[in-house]
Amino acid sequence: MEKTHDRSLPGGPESRIALFIDYDNLALGLKQSPDKNFNIALVMDRVLEKGRVLVKRAYADWSRYRAGKLELHESAIELIDIPKKRIGGKNSADIRMVVDAMEVSFTKDHLDTFVLVTGDSDFSPLVSKLRESDKRVVGIGIKAASSTLLVDNCDEFIYYDDLLRQEAEVRKAAPVKKRNLPPIKMEAFDILLAAVRGLFRENRDVVWASMVKQTIKRKKPTFDESYHGYKSFSELLLDAEKEGVLKLRKDERSGSLVITEIGQAST
């Protein structure tokens, strides 16, 4: 379940995001979770639905979490090492993360959204300060290890458990069901649907074709509709509508395509 406050997204359709990960808190929460492995790809996929991630940092004594380092490296996340044996204090990584987040807030005014991957109530004052600076704050944490104080202080809080559940539901769902579609076309429709579902989750008032293309490019920078046999992104959308994958309308003023809903063929 996602908890959201009634506050509009800043920065228009593509927010500029700073991501900070409290890996120690995640490791603690995963001990209480059926799934003991942290899937950063799920988190990144959800965050990229919100906008461009321009700062990505994770904090821990990385000598204790060697198994998790490779996946974070593959997502181009900067690992900030806080060796506990040399520094001591239980909260030294937390303090460094707070200091860095505030420094980024002060020096990089173009960033409008901060995503804090933690459930630790100690970060509640940071959330308050960021919001005082007119930054939108999104929290992501494991339900069993997330403080109610932190959850209620964020503009939005996403439970990692729900990301796992949603992924399982997508895997169980039938693939795009249409007559003998070529695999390369089914792949294009699956990529398209993932982006559209993400924008619907963000409660966009209008889901423009350009927003869908932006979201796809953030998630998959190598995406090119021509590889899938389409001359333009509009052609891909129109073919998806013809196959019953989604429904469209044309905006009368601009002539641009708008996605109104997901069709029956994709469920």
Model description:
With 267 residues, the protein is of the alpha/beta class. It folds into two domains: 2-168, 3-Layer(aba) Sandwich (Rossmann fold); 173-266, Nucleotidyltransferase, domain 5. The chain has eleven helices and ten strands. It has helices at residues 23-30, 40-48, 66-74, 84-87, 92-107, 124-132, 148-153, 160-172, 183-201, 209-219, 233-242, and strands at 2-4, 15-22, 51-60, 78-81, 113-117, 136-141, 156-159, 207-208, 246-250, 257-262. It has a seven-stranded mixed β-sheet with strand order 1-7-6-5-2-3-4, with helices on both faces. Helix 9 packs across helix 10 (209-219). The longest helix is centred in the last third of the chain and has 19 residues, at 183-201. It starts with a strand and ends in a 5-residue tail after the last strand. The model is unreliable at 1-12 (pLDDT under 50).
Compact overview of the structure:
The protein is α/β, with parallel strands linked by helices and 267 residues long. The protein has helices spanning 23-30, 40-48, 66-74, 84-87, 92-107, 124-132, 148-153, 160-172, 183-201, 209-219, 233-242, and strands at 2-4, 15-22, 51-60, 78-81, 113-117, 136-141, 156-159, 207-208, 246-250, 257-262.
